[in-house]
Amino acid sequence: MDITASVKLMEDEFIFWSKLGFGTDPPVFDKDGKHILYESIDKNKQHHKEMAEAGVKIHSCTISNGWVDDGVYDFKTPLAILEAVMSASPDIYYIPRFRLNPPVEWLKKNPEAVYVYENGPRTRDEIQDLVGSEWQEYMPWTPDELRRITETEEKVRNREYKIAQVSFSSKKWLKAAKEYTEKLIDVLEGSKYADRIIGYHFGTGKCGETHMWGDSADFGIDNRKAFFDWAIDKYGSCDSLKKRWGVDELAWENVPLPTNKQRYEN
User: Fold this and answer.
1) Helices vs. strands in the chain: H and E counts, helices first
2) Cα–Cα distance, 101 to 164 (Å, whole number)
3) Where are the beta strands (DSSP E) in 36-180?
4) pTM above 0.85?
5) By C-alpha distance, which of 207, 224, 230, 196 is closest to 96?
């Protein structure tokens, strides 16, 4: 369907959005390479069938995640979700929603791209040690599948996490996310349902809603470098910046990021 027709359809019709495709985030895969989901595909397919029978033409849900590792993809689960939605009724038009949060294995290889909370580590090795551990905040929380620890869900929810997922300042992640997006869309556009896909909705961050993780600023490596570069650009030189900030020595490693308290007070 061309863009004009897609826009007209979205202007005229309601959109049904379901929980189909909700999975571990960052993505975790089973032994068969399938992204672990929180609800069965069949259960949610029935919801789409019923909504189509009620006359709702536009449907949307998370297409799941096929990003397995650095440059490694497996689209079994996204294609299974596509099939579930589109086979529920020939009258359905679809808007896949997908997240750009990288998998644990990618974060382990790129700890400088990890979003670090104020109470978290600062060096590459220290951050890398926490990736995939109980100190990394996942979304949504599922202790049995994600945490690989024996604590209760209440304790997991109340844990004072030290790191989150990917930093929005990471240029390497942006490049990798672009590549993943292109791969996924190529797969969907190559499917037999391509003519009924009328758009794409993508996001990142907490819940895939493109906002910051937790309630803390990012004290990770890439964000500290980005803040330092921004400050140099704003004040013209490192010497001007040191004078402005009243410090004798300054580099991205010791750049004084505002604390969370300072941010909220100002």
Assistant:
1) 10, 8
2) 11
3) 58-62, 67-69, 72-73, 93-99, 114-116, 163-166
4) yes
5) 196
